[in-house]
Structure formats: C-alpha cells, structure tokens
Write a structure and sequence with these properties.
The chain is mostly helical. The protein has one domain: Tetracycline Repressor, domain 2 (Orthogonal Bundle), CATH 1.10.357.10. Helices cover 81% and strands 0% of the residues. It contains 9 helices and no strands. Helix 1 packs across helix 4, helix 5 packs antiparallel against helix 9 and helix 6 runs antiparallel to helix 7. The radius of gyration is 19 Å and the shape is elongated. This is TetR/AcrR family transcriptional regulator.
Length: 181
C-alpha cells in the first residue's frame, strides 16, 4: 500500500506541481482516505520525499534498461533515454529540481534531491566509463532536464553534440598525454 501511495504521489506532483495540490487533492489522487495517507506519510514534506524516492528508483531502473556496455554508446543511449523520460514523465522539467524550488528551506527534501543527483552523477561516470567526467556529464544531464520544457528534443541533440565533442576532445587530450610520456 505504501509503495502504491508513493507511486500515486509521484504522478500527482509531476502533474500538478508542488504548490497546487493540497493534502485533500493528494488523498484523492492516491485513492485512499486521509487517515491512510497520513498513516504512511504524516506531512506534505514526507509525501514529497516519498514521491522523490519512488521516482529516483524508477528513473535509475529506466536508465539501466537496454543500455549498451560501450562507454560512448552507453552515455549517448543514456541521454536518449533521458529525452524519452522527459517526453513521457517530466514534460514540466525535473521533479527533483522543482521540489527544491518549491521547498528551498526543507532540509530533508534537499537531502533527498542531493542524494538522487549524486547517484545519477556516479552512474553517468560509470556508464561513460569516464568517472573523471562525471560532474561535467551531470551538468549536461541537468541542462537537458532544465531546457526540455523550452527546447524539447533539441535539448537532447544539443547536449549529445556537446557530449561527443567533450568525449572526443578528452580522448585526444588523454592520447596526447600518453604519447608525451
């Protein structure tokens, strides 16, 4: 029951944002009584964290599916998956970043978002087989998420072009350093 409520909260916050839905609307979206909702999640902040945690697990599983093993192909595939995710599940932008914007002083929400972003960063480094570029890859990833509501698919193509330039330049720099040794 708790997982199903978290799944419904994720959908509700993604659809309505964080300011609009009051607890009564969230209860309706979850198809439970107010008592049941509060039993599992005693505050709106705990509901937001549950939705973010649920989305985090879903997103990581989504990125992992059908992923090639090759570093360049894998990270390009990851960016393509991000585009599909944005189109299907996040047309209004990143739910995590929207949560920080809605609750800038709520420490637990901010911690949940920071943990999510750190895990995504680490996965991007792993998928690309370039952990040294993990922060840069996260910036590109977040740029896609932020630009999606304005640019749509062009955010993916622009970020992928920047990604390939980065990887090509980085590879050339590494090769030159090895040659000079």
């Amino acid at each position: 029951m708790k997982q199903q409520i978290a799944a419904n909260l994720e959908v509700a916050f993604s659809q309505y944002g964080f300011a609009e839905p009051n607890v009564d609307k969230l209860k309706t979206a979850c198809n439970v009584s107010l008592r049941t909702l509060y039993k599992h999640y005693p505050s709106k902040e705990s509901m937001v964290i549950a939705a973010l945690d649920y989305r985090h697990q879903r997103y990581l599983a989504y990125l992992e599916s059908e992923r090639p093993e090759d570093g360049v192909q894998s990270i390009v595939h990851t960016f393509q998956k991000l585009g599909d995710w944005m189109a299907d599940y996040a047309p209004h932008g990143c739910l995590s970043m929207n949560a920080i914007a809605a609750f800038p002083k709520q420490v637990q929400i901010n911690q949940a978002v920071l943990q999510h972003k750190a895990e995504v960063r680490d996965l991007l480094g792993k998928y690309s087989q370039r952990p040294d570029l993990a922060n840069t890859l996260l910036v590109l990833h977040e740029g896609i998420s932020s630009a999606w509501p304005i640019l749509g698919e062009n955010a993916i193509s622009s970020a992928t072009s920047a990604l390939l330039t980065l990887l090509n330049h980085s590879e050339m720099t590494t090769s030159n350093q090895e040659y000079s040794l």
